[in-house]
Design a protein that fits this description.
Layout: H1 14-25, E1 61-62, H2 63-67, E2 73-76, E3 78-80, E4 83-91, E5 97-104, E6 116-121, E7 127-132, E8 139-145, E9 149-155, E10 164-170, E11 176-181, E12 184-185, E13 188-189, E14 195-200, E15 203-209, E16 224-230, E17 235-241, E18 243-249, E19 252-260, E20 266-273, E21 279-282, E22 288-292, E23 295-299, E24 303-307, E25 318-322, E26 330-335, E27 339-344, E28 350-353, E29 358-361, E30 369-370, E31 372-374, E32 377-382, H3 386-394, E33 402-407
Parallel strand pairs: 1-29
Antiparallel strand pairs: 2-33, 3-4, 4-5, 5-6, 6-7, 8-9, 9-10, 10-11, 12-13, 14-15, 15-16, 16-17, 18-19, 19-20, 20-21, 22-23, 23-24, 24-25, 26-27, 27-28, 27-30, 28-29, 31-32, 32-33
Length: about 425
């Protein structure tokens, strides 16, 4: 939100395609675009080869028609003192606190005021500052929280974000520890992709380069690894090499596995049960992917797919949404046990209700679709009026949308 794409769910072979482009063409590889822009993912991503089912075309329902008079919390992001709350796409498991950053609204020109990792209570609007970011230009690249731990990655070197540092906060003791940091080459942060940490049930996963990723050198991709730490013991395991863009929903983990960039990018998504060792390979090449329990959702920029039982692999994929035209992108998919959401260039945000088996249209007065779901929380922003947005842009200020929040455990099983 706040002008940046979600990052916590970014996975799939976006890494593969970006690495291939970067190595072969020498372009910059970044963890996410600069703050002020939402750039659609490259349209050159390979499309799915496997046929998938499509649900019966039931008509979409309005929020009220689907869910009745469900309670919606509306949270301002204008914090006063020329500061704004930027949601970082993660919420405490009890659905009480949003995780985000309190930062100066003039962030793009700010050189003195620090930003703060912050919790924002959905019901009381209480703000709880946790920690200052390292530098005035630092951004949180991605964050994740469970009952006892909060993990995040931050960097200040726009637009590459190569100089990242990952931290983990023990929520019981308040102690902050460094999880990992960017490797150095000749005193400078080494180029290469990293995935922000994702924490669940006391384990944290991330991906990183161990050494520079060199344009034109396929072998340097061996330097990219996916790692898992047991936060209770501190034990770190390397789950995969030549792989990245990892995500975790314990006990399931997933990452993009790069096989080759010769004559075009190739690879697959590995999904592994870290308790039983059971492994599933998805031969698709999605742009982003999200896990929840034994389910997975992903997108290929033009369609959104859901696999309710990921042990069925590609055969269980169902297409739940498709772009209306070639210029419309569906991306940054998120998932919980009730809903699938994504970002779409649409003035009426749609979500897929897994129980009702149909689209539900979220109400907004202006702006484009920007839905997010995780845990028991559905969130979508209501943009400022266009005139205020234009004025903010002229003044170099980050906009201050209103955040709409629903507890998905309160949604009815059938339309009222």
């Amino acid at each position: 939100m706040g002008g940046r794409p979600p990052t916590h769910a970014a996975l799939g072979l976006l890494l593969l395609c970006l690495v291939a482009q970067w190595l072969l063409a020498g372009c910059s590889l970044t963890a996410q675009p600069p703050r002020a822009n939402r750039t659609p993912t490259a349209t050159s991503l390979p499309r799915f080869a496997t046929a998938t089912a499509t649900p019966a075309p039931l008509p979409a329902l309005s929020l009220r028609s689907a869910w009745g008079d469900v309670a919606i919390s509306r949270l301002p992001t204008d914090l006063g003192d020329n500061r704004v709350f930027v949601f970082e796409n993660t919420v405490t498991l009890d659905g009480q606190w949003l995780v985000g950053v309190s930062e100066p609204r003039d962030f793009l020109s700010n050189t003195t005021r620090l930003s703060y990792l912050t919790l924002y209570n959905i019901h009381t609007q209480q703000m709880m500052r946790l920690r200052a970011l390292l530098h005035p230009q630092s951004q949180v690249i991605g964050a994740s929280i469970d009952d006892h731990w909060l993990a995040w990655s931050e960097a200040a070197d726009q637009p590459s974000f190569f100089d990242w540092t990952m931290f983990v906060l023990n929520r019981d003791t308040g102690q902050v520890s460094e999880l990992a940091r960017a490797p150095r080459a000749n005193g400078q942060p080494a180029p290469g992709p990293s995935t922000p940490p994702v924490v669940d049930q006391g384990h944290v996963i991330w991906s990183q380069p161990l050494a520079p990723i060199t344009p034109g050198d396929d072998a340097s991709l061996n330097n990219i690894v996916v790692r898992l730490e047991d936060l209770a013991t501190g034990k770190i395991t390397t789950l995969a090499t030549r792989a990245g863009e990892s995500v975790l929903a314990w006990p399931w983990a997933a990452w993009g596995q790069i096989t080759t960039i010769t004559n075009g990018a190739a690879g697959h998504v590995t999904v592994r049960n870290l308790v039983t060792g059971r492994e599933v390979q998805l031969q698709q090449q999605p742009a982003t992917i999200a896990l929840n329990g034994g389910s997975v959702a992903y997108d290929d920029l033009t369609s959104v797919y859901l696999i309710d039982d990921l042990t069925r692999g590609d055969a269980g994929a169902v297409r739940v949404a498709t772009a209306a035209n070639e210029g419309e992108h569906l991306e940054f998919v998120t998932l919980n046990d009730r809903l699938v959401t994504w970002v779409q260039q649409s003035a009426q945000p749609p979500v897929w209700d897994r129980r009702l088996q149909r689209m539900v249209i979220l109400p907004i007065a202006s702006g484009l679709s920007d839905g997010w779901v995780g845990g028991r929380t559905l969130l979508w922003p209501q943009a400022e009026p266009q005139g205020q947005q234009d004025q903010d842009e002229r003044n170099g200020l980050i906009p201050t949308p209103t955040l709409n929040v629903i507890d998905t455990t309160t949604l009815p099983s059938t339309p009222p």
